[in-house]
Write a structure and sequence with these properties.
- The protein is of the alpha/beta class and 397 residues long.
- It has two domains: 238 residues, CofD-like domains (Rossmann fold); 99 residues.
- It is 39% helix and 13% strand.
- Strands 3-2-1-7-8-9-10 form a seven-stranded parallel β-sheet, with helices on both faces.
- Strand 4 and strand 5 form a beta hairpin.
- It is globular, with a radius of gyration of 21 Å.
Amino acid sequence: MPRILMTRPVSIPDSLKLTRYSKLPELGPRVLFFSGGSALNGLSRTLKRYTHNSIHLVSAFDSGGSSAVLREAFDMPAVGDLRSRLMALADETVLGHPEIVRLFSYRLPKDDDDASLNKQLERLAQGKDPLVRRIPNPMRSLICNHLGYFQQAMPHDFDLRGASIGNLILTGGYLNNNRSLDPIIFLFSQLVNVRGTVRAITGDERQLMARLQDGTRVVGQHLLTGKEVAPISSPVQRLKLVHSQQEPKPEGSKLRKANRKLLASAELICYPPGSFYSSLMANLLVDGVGSSVADNPCPKVYIPNLGSDPEQFGMTPQQQVEALLHYLQADQEDPVAVSRLLNIVLLDSRFLNDVDADFKARLAELDIQLIDMDLTDPHQPEQYDNEKLVSALLSMT
């Protein structure tokens, strides 16, 4: 069957299209996001009012906070960002299950002693805690089963302080399903009526390693973000996946067939705001991602960060675009046209430095269209307004 590529003008925002999507979000467009972290959660809550078909491929390489405790104990991918995206996309209407969302969002106290924390975990696993008792069966039994499985597998010295119950439930399900993330993510997507599709970009246990321009080697996502340690003081020169923090030898990961199909089905692919390397670029390190992007003829849009991202130390918007294209091209057997990887840069130049004549000329040379428009929150001008951003993206579909 012949495939025909057609182009057409669009209006941004397209009020008629947005009205149609808001009335029938179950028929909304399949917009795919490469992401991780919490930067896209607010946008996801807005997005689900217009489409229930968005796709979120989430990096699972987080190595800080409570995710680090779970990864060290069970040698597994990080589940925290997956949990938070599931909750952001959960159905918040009367048809949803807010009691499950509350449970998944609950964290054990940081200041309680080990005995108290273990007792509370036991009450939760037995269904005796009020947070669990409110959940009707059979969902309550499923949750208690996975939480009980986690409790049995938990090392005796496991640190429960500040632990996310949602993360513990997902970990129990992961261990109980032959160390596979997809079944447990699918199960809880159904339980809370997730308005979209959330998947880990890979189920393999990997860590991020960055080589900085000054020669420093940084192993571990949490050492890049500037949240738990001092920000990096030299630009990132190269990013790759490695076996572990203790054994940082390069080790790749292949895109699964199910995720290839999701990429092939997308009507628009978005490289969204968020931590540039640990959230966005990390997804592109998985073998098969770049080639799958190139094979899909849909529009591809990059949205640069507003404000300061510690991972983008010393980077201009032009360098960000060049880095994005570099990692996408690295997956190709032979170089492909830029138009198959990136078509549009969407931004608000009032709050971005270096959106100058040289940058615009370089985009024109690469045949990438620049859309510069009002996208910011009037009350927080260095942040994107989720409504404006969603309206712009959906108008392109």
